Amino acid sequence: MSLQPNEASTETKPGGAISFPPGFVWGAATAAFQVEGATAADGRSESIWDRFAATPGAVVNGDTGDPAADHYRRYESDIGLMRELGLGAYRFSIAWPRVRPDAGAPNALGIEFYDRLVDRLLDAGIEPWATLYHWDLPQALEDKGGWAERSTAYRFAEYAETIASRLGDRVAAWTTLNEPWCAAMLGYANGLHAPGRTDPEAAVAAAHHLMLGHGLAMDVIRRHAPDTPAGITLNLYPVVASDPSSAADADAARRVDGLQNRLFLDPLLNGTYPEDIADDLEPFGLDHVVRDGDLAAIAAPIDLLGINYYRGYEVTGTPRPGTEPGGPEWIGARNLAFVSDNRLPRTDSGWQVQPDGLTTTLLQIHRDYPGVPLYITENGASYPDVLSEQGEVNDHDRIAFLDSHLRAAHDAIAAGVDLRGYFYWSLLDNFEWAEGYAKRFGLIHVDYQTQRRTPKQSANWLSRVISLNSIG
Ligand code: FCB
Fold first, then answer.
1. Fold for domain 7-468?
2. pLDDT digits (tens, 9 = 90+) for 59-81
3. Average pLDDT, the chain
4. Per annotation, catalytic residue among 149, 179, 201, 314
5. What are the residue ranges spanned by the domains of the chain?
């Protein structure tokens, strides 16, 4: 899905009135390890993120999964807040180590939590959107090789069975995995995420086994919830060569687009690995892990593709002062670097704000992989929010981010993209992985000492947009 400059629509119309199609889903997202806390409650076992966070130096400030936003205990009042905001849907993830601790037998207490969560959401008129895997692998499985082992995909299908058989009658939409790129590449190649491994062969195996797990879980979901839309969420990025006339830059862009986007999109939607990337990954053992029948399982039809969008990439093959060298997650790539457009504003995570990249990504998927309904399952920004003495968070920067990205999404719809919903990341401030609690993405501010919730101005803004279904 390589991008030709100027090909995408960048004609957002700041300030103009826009409205979204009827039935458009408005939601917010969280993930179990990031919000639940209560990591020792009701028989939950250790996950790779508990182990990783306990490793000195792995997470900023030594932060861990406790207390997070204590959502495990406060979910009912959190649903009350969602209702006040007028959210139509809540995307949450289910913690495998609560449901099948140590990937062993089902745990009634853990399952009951999600049962209650789903029921209370339905009572509140909010669609439950469940993700089966948002990175909290039971540590017991990592001890046996984690996602680098084929058997983990089958353990994942067993866990999916436990959940789909119990919640399949009530969940409104399923996604199997959240961002397998991060789970495989950040977790197993560059060590920035749990389990903190730096083994490119393990990362390549993990990428394949995650996708196999997706395919196996789709089959399980179909059996228990044949009429419920199901699919997967990928983190997709538009990639441009810094100098399109430079062969080195074009090759660097091909490689980043290949590893980040096509390595997941092609098996999922075309039933093949992209040839160029399969060649690049051959020395890292891709051929050894793919068995007969795997690609057919991975390519099982999906009803929805979730897209998480945060930023785009400008890539060069000639690193120089001012460019940021690519890390080991770009497996086997030498001379790969990222170029920043310093005219663009940045979020507190240092990510450039690039709403037009969202339009580009949606148009590319629509063009290159037609026919799948799309949802933005994450889009959001961290800012150094301050709770004023009056008890307000005036996050005008987040409102501008939301406004520009919703307009960008709307541009894609206007160009014919079948985009059916938007989930802001995140409902609540939470544990931002290796960044700990230092980065705040929420619509709702969380005071981690008192667990007091304060809806930010952005929450009020989004709430108005939802009720009008339009931006003025
Ligand atoms: C995504 C993750 C999500 C959150 C956002 C900021 O990559 O899926 O859990 O951390 O980034």
1. TIM Barrel (3.20.20)
2. 999 999 999 999 999 999 999 99
3. 96
4. 179
5. 7-468
